[in-house]
Amino acid sequence: MTEAGALRTSLRTAAILAVFTLVFTLLMASTYRATKPSIEASAEAEKMKLVNEVLPPDLYDNAPLGDWVAIPPNRELGYGAKDGPQRVLRARKGDAPAALVLEAVAPDGYAGKIHLILGVDAGNRLLGVRVVKHAETPGLGDYIDPKKDRNKASPWIRQFDAKGFDQVAATEWRVKKDGGRFDARAGATISARAVTNAVRRALQYATDNRDRLYAPPAQATLQGGDPS
Amino acid sequence: MSAFGEIARNGIWKQNTSLVQLLGLCPLLAVSTSFVNGVSLAIATIFVMALASGVVASVRNLIPHEIRIPIFILIIASLVTMVDLAMNAWLHELYLVLGIFIPLIVVNCIVLARVEAFAAKNAPLAAAWDGAMMGVGMVVAIAVLGAVRELVGTGALFGGIDMIIPGSHPLQVLPQDYPGFLVAILPPGAFIVLGLLIASRNWLDARSLARPPRQARMAPAQA
Questions:
Q1: Residue-range domain boundaries for chain A
Q2: Rounded to whole angstroms, how far apart are CA atoms A20 and B71?
Q3: Of A23, A228, B32, B151, which has the fewest Cβ atoms less than 10 A away?
Q4: CB count, 10 Å around CB of A73?
Q5: B223 in any annotated domain
Q6: Is B114 a domain residue?
Q7: ipTM value greater than 0.90
Q8: How far is it, in rounded angstroms, from Cα A161 to Cα A128?
Q9: Which residues contact A223 (CB under 8 A, 6 or more apart)?
């Protein structure tokens, strides 16, 4: 083959590759545009479903997903400076504070971080706790997630429901193995200990900062005041 | 039609991706901790493989031989992205179950292997059928693998089925106080069970080869 022929072949091949790339990129782009609205709607519904798990719907009459306050990354909730600000959702009934929904991280799970979402009512008691994301050992430590808990009648994580520091003192808010009041499954204490301690720290934060969290207008950012 | 039958036999038994070709083991081993997980991944794989093979086969005459691999990868990756987006938007319930597995399929070399070995040389319908049957072979392998691991590991079957069929319950096979055998669920268990599965498939194959042909077997029965 002559040099000019080789050049022509390469150009032709390159052009074909470029056309394929263009066509499939266009296809992907139009799929993205066509699906975007319904994906966003389902992401919102998804988040609301998670929030609903820790926040009984009859407790509030506002739209908590819109009524949030941003807080700086906070060590009590398990966040470091790298994580950026976190949102705390506020539920209200007739403008009176009803509940806070906050996310927290247990940094010391058996397999890394355990992400939690908590609902705390106006009287500083827990409405519920759910595990959002974790990597605990399947079949061993993953009972912290009620979907994986084999005891469907009373999943482990439900023992936090309706608990506050007025019933279980902060010093006793530990797993039984550490001298506290909360159960853990034999052989898989680490996951339960991580969650229990993270819930205690988050509840402590919500209790200490209750008024500061409810007061600011929607979508404001809470400044400073955090020792960490 | 017998060509299609042959393709099916190839995909499910003779060239089973998981047990004979040993392709795509990474998702296979990672996801086969339970029956429901494994079968969900395999069903998503069937779908993507049939689609990718069909599309590649219908444009196969436009693809220059030298750059076929980049184009195959481009087609597979775009199709998976589009399926992922479309399922997320319009089949959201199903997406919640299968969603995490779909991106895994892009890196599954079975898809590329079948596109290269079959779809690039055959008509679209046969290619799509081949892709689907390779996926069915994976369903069979992963269903057994997942069921054995789940049964030995937890004593139950079909854990997580309530995510797919709401209101249904896992099946407790072994007694409720079965302590569980964790190794089966952890990665080493995947390798051990997969090894046993490959061995039993080879054993079945060897036995049917050693057996006399069908007519010879019929004769003594009549006597």
A1: 1-42, 55-221
A2: 7
A3: A228
A4: 16
A5: no
A6: yes
A7: no
A8: 5
A9: A72
Q: Which of B142, B183, B189 is nearest to B43 (CA)?
A: B142
Six-digit token string for A51: 């929030």
When the pLDDT of each residue in chain A is averaged and rounded to a whole number, the result is 88
Collect all residues of chain A within an 8 Å Cβ-Cβ radius of residue B67: 13, 16-17
Return the number of CB contacts < 8 Å for A and B: 62
Nearest CA in chain A to B74: A21
Give the pair of three-digit tokens for residue B75: 């087609």
**Which DSSP helix (H) or strand (E) runs through B135?**
helix B124-154
The pLDDT tens digits for A81-139 are 888 888 899 999 988 899 999 999 999 999 889 999 999 999 999 999 999 888 888 77
| Band of residue B221 on the pLDDT scale cut at 50, 70, 90 | very low
In chain B, DSSP finds a helix count (H) and a strand count (E) of: 10, 2
Tokens of A77: 């909730």
Does B81 touch chain A if contact means CB atoms closer than 8 Å?
yes
**What range defines the domain where residue B69 resides?**
2-212
CA dihedral B177, B178, B182, B188 (to 10 degrees): -170
The CA distance from A68 to B159, in Å, is 37
The token pair at A192 is 């339960």
Residue B48 · residue B111 · CB < 8 Å:
yes
Whether B153 maps to a domain, the answer reads yes
CB A159 within 8 A of CB A181: no
Tokens 């509030």 belong to which residue? A60
A69-81 pLDDT per residue, tens: 998 888 889 888 8
Among B62, B74, B182, the residue with its CB nearest the CB of A21 is B74
Specify the number of domains making up chain B.
Answer: 1
| Chain A CB within 8 Å of residue B58 CB | no
* Chain A hits for B185, Cβ within 8 Å: 138-139
Asked whether the beta carbons of residue B74 and residue A20 sit closer than 8 angstroms, the reply is yes
A26: nearest CA in chain B? Answer: B78
Query: Interior CA angle at A46 toward A43 and A52, to 5°?
Result: 145
pLDDT of residue A15: 92
CB of B75 within 8 Å of a chain A CB? The answer is: yes
Confidence band for B102, pLDDT divided at 50, 70 and 90: confident
B2 confidence band (pLDDT: 50, 70, 90): low
Q: What angle do CA B153, B156, B160 make, to 5 degrees?
A: 100
**Close Cβ partners of A92 (under 8 Å, ≥ 6 residues apart):** A60, A61, A62, A67, A98
Which positions 93-152 of B are in contact with A (Cβ < 8 Å)? Answer: none
Between A20-24, A137-141, B189-193, the lowest mean confidence (pLDDT) is in A137-141
